[in-house]
Design goal:
Helix content: over 70%
Largest sheet: none
Shape: elongated
Distance between the termini: 126 Å
Strand content: under 5%
Number of helices: 5
Structural class: mainly alpha
Radius of gyration: 32 Å
């Protein structure tokens, strides 16, 4: 009799825990990327973030969605894949924007420095390996001609 009296409390509690666990499964994989996203956006520096991780996670989640069409599994796992794909696309978008912006800023600094007569101080030109090899061969050939030619 007491079990029936607690049913009014246990059934909604069970549903609440079930919804909470499903929500944790769906959004739990995304939570670690929130501080990274904010840090990359704040510092405008994406050097520590690997885009290969995004690639692996995108492929894995796309394969999981394709597997779902063949054999259905729990819907929170399907939603987790969809949310993770969206998250990885946002992270890749941010990283490419930051990297392109940083590359443009470096190029702008380079052109700005050229306008201030910094180009007058130039490093010596690098010699090509082939030019060095050809000059060594020419020296060797001329030495061999001196030794082999009678005076």
């Amino acid at each position: 009799m007491e079990a029936e009296g607690l049913d009014w409390l246990l059934v909604p509690l069970h549903q609440l825990v079930s919804w909470g666990a499903a929500g944790a499964m769906v959004f739990g994989g995304v939570v670690p990327y929130i501080p990274q996203y904010r840090d990359i956006r704040r510092t405008q520096n994406a050097e520590g973030f690997s885009t290969y991780v995004c690639l692996v996670l995108l492929v894995a989640n796309i394969l999981r969605i394709l597997f779902w069409f063949g054999r259905h599994f729990e819907s929170p796992l399907l939603w987790q894949s969809i949310v993770m794909i969206l998250t990885m696309l946002l992270m890749l978008k941010l990283c490419t924007e930051v990297r392109v912006t940083n590359e443009l800023n470096v190029k702008r600094r380079f052109f700005a420095a050229a306008d201030t007569q910094d180009e007058a101080i130039k490093p010596p030109p690098r010699r090509s390996y082939l030019v060095t090899l050809e000059s060594e061969m020419a020296t060797t050939v001329s030495l061999a001609e001196l030794v082999l030619l009678p005076s």
